[in-house]
Amino acid sequence: MKHHHTKRFYLFISSATVISLALFVSAFVWLNNRPTTKPVFGVTYSWVYAERLGQNPVKTYERIVDDLEVKDVRIPLYWSEIEHEEGEFDWSIPDALLQLSEDHGVNLTVVIGSKVPRWPECYVPDWAEKFSEIYQQQAVLLFIEEAVDRYKSSASVIRWQVDNEPFFPFGICSQISQAQFQERIDLVHSLDDRPIQVTVSGELGPWLDSAKSADILGISMYRQTWNDLFGHFVYPLTPDYYYFRSTLIRGAVSQVVVSELQAEPWFSAPIESKPLLEWYDSFTVEMFNQNVQFAQEAGLSEAYLWGAEWWYALKEQGDDRLWEEARPLFQK
Length: 332
Prior knowledge:
Elements: H1 2-31, E1 40-44, H2 47-52, H3 57-66, E2 72-76, H4 79-82, H5 92-103, E3 107-112, H6 126-129, H7 133-151, E4 157-162, H8 178-191, E5 196-200, H9 208-211, E6 216-221, E7 224-227, E8 231-234, H10 239-248, E9 255-262, H11 285-298, E10 302-306, H12 308-316, H13 321-326
Parallel strand pairs: 1-2, 1-10, 2-3, 3-4, 4-5, 5-6, 6-9, 9-10
Antiparallel strand pairs: 7-8
Helix pairs in contact: 3-5, 7-8, 10-11
């Protein structure tokens, strides 16, 4: 009897080993046959960041879409910078950016909500900060409605993005609930039939929960970061990691894109703490090319580079290396 059980045990171990090996080989072949076509490259353009760098935000955007010929852009609408007083809207900068986009045939992803790209991430007007959670939600819904109604007639707008990484605990933000976020999604769906993009941290966050609310899922892709504990740090992830995760959720969304591809330094101190040109060593052309190659190997269809305002700031200071290195990516 003991011999019989031993034989069954070894049979089980052998079968499990064969199955595991088959799964490993299948996964290896599958991952190594992923698409290697060049993604469509675009940029995320933050007019608030451009202003912080001392630039004219409209002129900088014009150079990006005219000189670099960028045709795919993600543009956040900053609630606190547009509705300074309750019910009083200043759309002058977004209007100018939308007009330039239409003039240059740019495809736009417009980001709306209270949490949008660039630190401190949440852009809630001072007058709305004093509201309770319920009333602040109603205030941001009104802003979203105003924004969608204003720009849904634009031929450049190809999709909306509602908030940015809404459930990832990064930035100076109050956490919103899944129900509040879904209310924002439902509002945009009721106002316009364009696809809605939802974004997540590609490195650290869960993807599936956000994908359930999205037509398109956007993921971040950062390589070189910095924190107080480790200093400069490179994520120990491979392109396979992103490709594998993207395939797992493709039944939930029509497309997975790289919404933020690192193409500037992860600043370890305030930018103004040293001359701009000294920051170049924190993110060089070689690092830029490594990140572009990494994104290509991940096999996703679109990748929006993060840092075009930075390239232009360096160019204005006399260092156009990153600006010129990026140029070929956008040539059709």
